[in-house]
Amino acid sequence: MRGLALIVAVLGTGALGAARLQQTAPRDASTLAPTVGTAAVSGIVVTDEEPGQPVRRAIVVLAGDGLRPTRSAITDDEGRFGFADLPAGKFTITVSRASFVTSMYGAKRAGRPGVPLVIGDGARVANVAVRLWRGAALAGTLRDEWGAPVAGIQVRAFPARARGPLQSLSNNGNATTDETGQFRIFGLEPGAYVVAALPPSGSSSPYVGLSDAQTDAALEALRRRTANAGAGAPASPPVDDSPPRPFGYASIFFPGTPVATQAATITVAAGESHAGLDFALQRVGTSIVSGVVMKPDGTPAAQASLQLTSIAPAGPLRDATRVELTATAGVDGSFRIAQVRPGDYELAARVPADLSQPGIRPGYIEAPSTPQLYAIANLSVAGGDVTGLALSVAPGINIRGRLAFESETKKAPETNGGSVWLIPEIQLPVTTGAGLVRSLQIPAAGRTRPDGTFEFGGVAPGKYWLMTSGAGVPMDAWQLRSAVIGGRDVLDGLVEVPAGSGPLELVMTYDDKPARLSGRLETASGAPASDVFVLAFAADRNLRGPYSRRIKAVRPGEDGSFGIGGLPAGDYLLAALTDADPEDWQNPEFLRQLEASCVKVSLIPGTPVVQNLRIGG
Amino acid sequence: MARPSVGAALLVVLLAVSASSLRGDAAQTPAPAPPQGAITGVVYDATTGNPVPAATVSLSKTTGGFSFPRSITDSKGRFIFRGLEPSTDYYLGASRFGYEYTRYGWTGPDQSLATADIARVAVAKDQWVSDIRIPLWRPGSISGHAFDERGEPLVGVAVRAFSRQMVSGQEQLVAGNLATTDDRGRYRLSVLRPGQYVVAVLSVQSTVLQTTGETPATRPVGELQSGGIGGGRGATVSMPAINVDPTHRLVVTNFITPPPPSTDRPRAYPATFYPGVPSIADAAALDITYGVDRANIDIRVAPTPAVRVAGRLVMPAGEPPPALLLRLLPAGMERLGFGAEAATTTVEKDGAFVFLNVPPGTYTLLAQATVMDFTTGSTSTRLPEAPGFPGGSASVGSVNAAPGMEYLARSGPATAFYGRALVAVGADPIGDLVVPMRHTSTVSGRLVFPEGLAIPPGLFASVSMEPANGDPALGQPRGELKEGAFTIGGLLGGVYLFSNGLSSNNPTFMGSLRVASVTWQGRDVSVAGLDASAADDFRDVVITLTDKKIVVTGTVTGPAGRASSVVIAFPADRSRWKNFGWNPRSFATARSSPSGVYRFESLPAGDYYVVAVDPKFSDAWVDPKFLTAAVPFAARVTLSWGDTPTVDLQLATVVIK
């Protein structure tokens, strides 16, 4: 009889893997009283068609400064929604429904920022119409080189203009082929896309395949040899029986190219369904990567876990960086990874410092407190085998952290038991294949002590996002101003943990002086301008880029007033744009071109800055 | 003339050097001719007979230690292995996504993987074995659309297949494959094993407190959890939540967005089974066999008036209410996991709770820390935990008494309390539902080792218990052994058996021992178990171990002489054919070797039937119908500790009625 199979995984980090950098945690509303008032808003959600059709069962979210909690409602069969007991204020209305593009009140196009709704005390605002754009769909069939449908392959749509890393698409940007090879990606914003199939690298045992013609030739050779042997004829020279080079499948763009720049661009309108994206996988020869992992004392790092992660070139696939293959070193520290496709890789090795400790199981993820040795190397594979690699594992790096509080009026709060996390930049999926849970760069967790100190022990070298769930700090009273490590504020980028470095010091400084920028945008004639965006971005070019917390855009309210919160202190440029694609804001070239037509402002902690803007003034 | 002669001289010299070097090589390492054996053949679809391209064919040796690159079939389903050494131990397997794995020689899918049953392929020196045909069986599929009452497609909602499976001798409902609908409302449940399925659009009304942390929607519509076995942390809400009253919100996850709740007349979409019924009892069963695709299995949902069900947990005096997720499961679906609930909610500080939007029906309210279920089919996607579930740990695995199934248990922080209540929901709201919370039961006792046996120092062992009726909702309580004594807490209301075997840091030592008896209050409870329904504690349970064993051996003879078979031993007492837990010790199966020899070493003393049957019945012992059919062919034996009987058997042809 089979024995009882039991696999236990300690959870708790799963939620973190899904979220991109969040400097602040969800507000714990349990300590805050809900805000109520006497105003009311009602309206209708309609499709983008002319005339708009009511959209039932849409989820309408009303949010705004100081509104606790956020209000939400579902539209009825006539597309209507309503909110009562609202305080006065400026609110955004966001509407979503599966397979539609999440849209904001006042947006002129799908996926663009909307206009805040300004509500006075006790006002009754009725007939607010919110347009909801139908999502587009991309569908087709994926086949192999023989025309057989391929199942279980991830197919993704990437915005065609993608530059640099991208946030995930706002809705389903991917699908998996079913066993008839079909895929359907839906709920897409209208726009231009490239579509890629991303086959997994397969298992590490090699496989070979022959074309029909090669099979015919091989069978014919066998037939000739057998016939000759049967006729008692002299033995023919041996058939070349060396198996062809093992192969894998490359990531491939529609209509059938591994090169992103040669991908076809498919433009879809709102609600358009573009079917017939039929394309085929292509084979690439694979290589073997082998070598040995050694410990600092020169002994073999027996049973080290190895992980080969592909580093996608810049472009749409940058975000698709993922674990390619894993392996476990033998008792002599040697390892061999087959089925490696051409490309650039990071090879990471991890081994518990003391394998004999109770509870240590090679290949499993241990408690982060278990001391680990790490090595990381970069390599390129271009068809040939990569052999003789020598990796030397070294202890992880200790990071000592401290929370600092700056306030003229308040005492530093008690911070006991808050959490600070270092999340690996490459967010590797934690898989449970074959019972193994593997992720070499374990997210590191630090728990704050009453005196505000915390510690990350034995962090693997690499790049991390710093993340905190507030670290036990009341987030309504304090804001995180900086997190400095080695003289660099890591809130503007990644935490770099260099291999072989000594202990690092991290100081996270909170203050109670939020910077705030507000103003009024008007046209040349002095009328309020609300169909224009205000974009604020860091004056320092080095502080721009994807995920920068120093780039923010808002659309002024109907009265032309705008407010931008959450920007750290510093120098900013303000621009007014008639239309803007969030992608553009991440494009350094676009921002550089804007510089000449910008107004410069300086944000100082605790000082509200008012900057009125006039278009064409 | 000088030139040619120079050329000729050079040529001679070169040839001489080359010849001598060849001789030198031959003298140092005699290079045998490379082996030229070959195996070729075709992979075909067992249902249609068509060749299967792009199937993966593996070549191995029963002796192990042989690695050959796997072969991918061409467009005509052909595969080729060349350069093979002579051997009589080759065997082949074939697989392709969407098909069942098959070995060469199988006459049906899912046959024995035991080495003894392998159909070997012999390759003589330089022989070409050219006639290998490997069938692949394609599991069936069910596909269709999900619509709402206006015929609009339901997008991103979970659709699931359910089937009845034998667990611990009794049929129970088990969840199977899972899919979500696309923007056309279309779903496809693929890779379905033969069987009878019912299909449902799932719908769970999940209530969370208004104060639950709020995060933006981070999960794409319809995305299920894949790979990992645990989701996020319980308190986060990753999908939109709808304000219903000042303190509660309704969360929309992988289920149908409900009609807008209103204070006067809330409505909900109940989970709906094909062909459009809210109760699983009225669902239409769909027969699936290999190669069968059932299309157009469309399901239309309609809203129904729903009510608010409020109440409170009543704790034993002075105890604070535990932070639990409360699950409201429709009658007949109590043993299912996440996604099967009509509604879920969390416990508020004072023990009060509110389920919003509950459709009418008869339900069981489960208040306990662990959510566990058995599932069939693909486990590559799962439903995330319900919002508000205070998740902590998760485990997956399988048990003997639930063949072909996997269990998944997700646990929140341990609590010493649990509660269950039957709830009939009609047209009126319920405001005062009282759920009495009971102490989980504790079992304590000691382990008696055989006299004179030296117990190794530092011995660590744990004793675990399992529900007699196999109900996964009862969990698997466990306790550590300390100085011969053990305490197991966390028994919920049900009958528990001690699990077969003790897990230990010294498996060699513990493996040499068997449980001879379990006594409590003077009775042997090893078979009847301990009934924790009354929430009593059980003290002074004595588990007596023996170092004696019972070894049953014999030879199986079939029509054509000694036969490969599976030999099954089962209790002679029919009342023990069900409620035997997850890994029963009084059932045993053993493979007979090609020479017909079998051997059992794990049975405790007692009266048994022993029968030899076709290997395809290796899991059939969980079904009392099979055991009834097998009795006429079985040998009856009485076994005492230390016996070593020989029981020779005839291969039986059992037909289950």
General form of chain B: globular
**Termini Cα gap of chain B:** 100 Å
Strand proportion of chain A: 35-45%
Quaternary structure classification:
heterodimer
Strand portion of chain B, in percent?
35-45%
* Structural class determined from secondary elements of chain B: mainly beta
Question: What's the main sheet of chain B like?
Answer: 10 strands, mixed
Name the average pLDDT of chain A: 77
Determine the number of helices of chain B (DSSP H or I, runs of at least 4 residues). 3
User: How many strand units of chain B?
Assistant: 53
Q: How many alpha or pi helices of chain A?
A: 4
Give the distance, in angstroms, between the N- and C-terminal Cα atoms of chain A: 84 Å
For the largest beta-sheet of chain A, the strand count, sense and barrel status come to: 5 strands, antiparallel
Q: How would the blueprint of this fold be written?
A:
The complex is a heterodimer of chains A (617) and B (657).
Chain A: E1 5-10, H1 14-18, E2 39-47, E3 59-64, E4 71-74, E5 80-86, E6 89-96, E7 100-101, E8 103-104, E9 117-119, E10 124-134, E11 136-143, E12 154-159, E13 174-176, E14 182-188, E15 191-198, E16 207-209, H2 212-230, E17 247-249, E18 252-253, E19 266-268, E20 273-274, E21 279-280, E22 283-285, E23 287-294, E24 305-310, E25 323-328, E26 334-340, E27 343-352, E28 372-381, E29 386-392, E30 394-395, E31 397-406, E32 419-424, E33 444-447, E34 453-459, E35 462-468, E36 479-485, E37 488-489, E38 495-497, E39 504-511, E40 516-522, E41 533-538, E42 551-554, E43 561-564, E44 570-577, H3 582-585, H4 588-594, E45 599-603, E46 608-610, E47 613-614
Parallel strand pairs in A: 2-10, 11-20, 11-21, 23-29, 31-39, 40-46, 40-47
Antiparallel strand pairs in A: 2-5, 3-4, 3-6, 6-8, 6-9, 7-10, 11-14, 12-13, 12-15, 15-18, 15-19, 17-22, 23-26, 24-25, 24-27, 27-28, 28-30, 31-34, 32-33, 32-35, 35-38, 36-37, 36-39, 40-43, 41-42, 41-44, 44-45
Chain B: H1 2-28, E1 37-45, E2 56-61, E3 70-72, E4 78-84, E5 87-95, E6 102-103, E7 121-123, E8 128-136, E9 140-147, E10 158-167, E11 170-180, E12 186-192, E13 195-201, E14 205-209, E15 225-226, E16 241-243, E17 248-251, E18 267-268, E19 272-273, E20 286-288, E21 293-294, E22 299-300, E23 304-305, E24 307-314, E25 325-330, E26 343-346, E27 352-358, E28 361-367, E29 370-375, E30 381-382, E31 393-398, E32 406-411, E33 417-425, E34 430-436, E35 438-439, E36 441-448, E37 461-467, E38 478-482, E39 485-491, E40 495-498, E41 503-504, H2 507-511, E42 514-520, E43 523-524, E44 530-531, E45 538-546, E46 552-558, E47 561-562, E48 566-571, E49 588-591, E50 597-600, E51 606-613, H3 624-630, E52 635-639, E53 649-650
Parallel strand pairs in B: 1-8, 9-21, 9-22, 14-26, 24-34, 36-45, 46-53
Antiparallel strand pairs in B: 1-4, 2-3, 2-5, 5-6, 5-7, 9-12, 10-11, 10-13, 13-19, 13-20, 14-17, 15-30, 16-17, 18-23, 24-27, 25-26, 25-28, 28-33, 29-32, 31-32, 33-35, 36-39, 37-38, 37-40, 37-41, 38-39, 40-44, 42-43, 42-45, 46-47, 46-50, 48-49, 48-51, 51-52
